[in-house]
Specification:
Blueprint (H helix, E strand, L loop, with lengths): L4 E4 L6 E4 L4 E8 L8 E9 L8 E11 L6 E13 L13 H12 L5 H20 L6 H8 L5 H9 L4 H7 L11 H46 L2
Antiparallel strand pairs: 1-2, 3-4, 4-5, 5-6
Helix pairs in contact: 1-2, 2-3, 2-6
Length: about 230
């Protein structure tokens, strides 16, 4: 395995440096005259170093392998890959975000590798749900809703949302039926999920934290006013 590396725990969201004592790797190779020749299944177990977490992740992947250099090693990109624990790459989000939005996001993450086109469809529906709930914009087509966002959000965020429409088949069909399933590449489905995460963090979480801070300021001012009144003879 590689040297120490930076890693974000999918459970506690803490950024940590993973070392050999937090990591377990194995590669099981086989042939037995199967149609792909000599292949191997790699498994990686990573344990969170955070003492308050200590959760672990398990991932596996199927590779072509070769033995040049004296030991078996994976070659090229994975033939298949599995996220075993947790079962998806979904980030934990607070429950003040509407449940239907979180459900679409979590399911899109869960099936991203299994069916990128179905994952992308759920992500597009999730994006539409966010725009309708957060911005109160509701149109017949998602593209019309995105167009109405222009001027309401910063230009970088708007361009990032708008750019999704130009990515392969996703871009072509975002302008049409939000529930239409089309052929999508895995990296395109993943791109949509990362966009959803950014919007949830920048819109819902930051708004909540801002309002929470403002309420604390208001409460502090009211407490001071009350104290002054009580101090009067």
């Amino acid at each position: 395995m590689a040297d120490d590396f930076s890693w974000t725990c999918p459970y506690c969201r803490q950024i940590a440096t993973i070392k050999s004592d937090n990591l377990s790797y194995d590669l099981h190779t086989f042939d037995h005259n199967n149609k792909l020749g000599c292949i191997g299944i790699s498994s990686v177990v990573t344990v969170c170093p955070n003492s308050k977490c200590r959760e672990f992740t398990i991932t596996a992947a199927l590779y072509n392998v070769d033995s040049r250099g004296g030991s078996w090693r994976p070659v090229g990109n994975p033939i298949l890959r599995w996220q075993l624990k947790p079962q998806s790459s979904a980030k934990p989000f607070p429950d003040y975000i509407p449940a239907p939005i979180l459900q679409d996001y979590q399911e899109a993450c869960l099936i991203c590798d299994l069916s990128p086109k179905a994952s992308a469809t759920l992500s597009r529906r999730c994006l539409q749900g966010i725009i309708r709930d957060f911005w109160r914009i509701s149109k017949a087509r998602l593209i019309d809703e995105i167009d109405e966002l222009k001027g309401k959000v910063d230009s970088t965020t708007w361009k990032a949302i708008d750019a999704v429409r130009s990515i392969g088949n996703i871009g072509a069909h975002m302008e049409k039926d939000i529930n239409l399933i089309v052929d999508v590449e895995p990296d395109e489905a993943d791109l949509l999920l990362r966009l959803i995460e950014v919007l949830l963090e920048e819109w819902y979480i930051r708004r909540y934290e801002r309002e929470e801070h403002m309420q604390k300021v208001i409460a502090a001012a009211e407490a001071k006013t009350t104290a002054k009144v009580d101090e009067k003879p």
